[in-house]
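Blinded run. Sample ID left blank on purpose so nobody reads anything into the name before looking at the predicted structure. Input follows.
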Amino acid sequence: MSRRAVIIGINEYESASISPLSGAVHDAELMTDVLSKNEDGSPNFECRQFTSPAQKVTRALVKGECERLFADGADAALFYFAGHGCPTTVGGFLVTWDGKDKDWGISMQELLDHANSSRVKEVLFILDCCNSGNLGDPASVQGAIENRAILREGVTILAACRSTQNAVEIGGQGMFTAMVLHALHGGAADVMGLVSAASIYAHVDLALGAWDQRPIYKSYASRLGPIRKCEPAVPLGILRILPTIFVDPIGTLLLDPSYEVTNKTADPAKVAVFNNLKIYRNARLVRTTKDDDLYYAALNSTGVRLTGLGRFYWHLAKNGRI
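Blinded prediction complete.
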């Protein structure tokens, strides 16, 4: 599968009138590091990173890289930007190294046009800049004939803030990017270890309060492909046998002392099941019906049941989707 990403971070600008940032370059470097490989070390996105002041990240460079990113031949494309953003009467702009007053850089609409016209199956924009919520919004030009900011199927946007808000840096790092990175490192992973754009947003959304910048999620997606794969909470082989341990997803599995390895009546087959139940319990897929601990559930011959989450994965396993 072909997956490629363009990662941009701009701390310093050619124009002295644009205040420098402190964390955009470091954020881009960290993003490249986490996106290039899954947690097990397998390749993920092939990343091209551009940072300023090390490089002159001009509008021409960004435009050319976007054209390459969204050219035919990729299954997934990701565009990340950390730097200044600017609202105008013709829509939002990403401020490039050579940006200046009234000629800021590359418009968010142009970025979206590249994505919408491409054949790339899945596109994800992650923008950590002020006014980044403008991406995907129609320009507010009076009398404008066309409002082109409509996402085609397969395009998703994660923006650091509303179109009217500033994106905050804290401790030399973008607050939004810090939370996205935490999500990609497993904070937003599901039981199978998969991190999607939707789960990243949910993770960031919960971390921010009513007085913080408000992250934005926009998507027209028919499927949620993983952005990164992390270590699963339950090994997939053990997750797949869930229906063989719980024949009935809403029934109770009655335990007895033979499930516990330290008991004289221990049954090796039942002990193996019990060990899997411990893994399921840690992942919140099962709960005891009476005793708080699985050990005492076995000694007291009480039972365990699937949780709502456990029933969900039971059905996935039963239908061969794991």
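Unblinding after everyone has recorded impressions. The mean pLDDT is 94.
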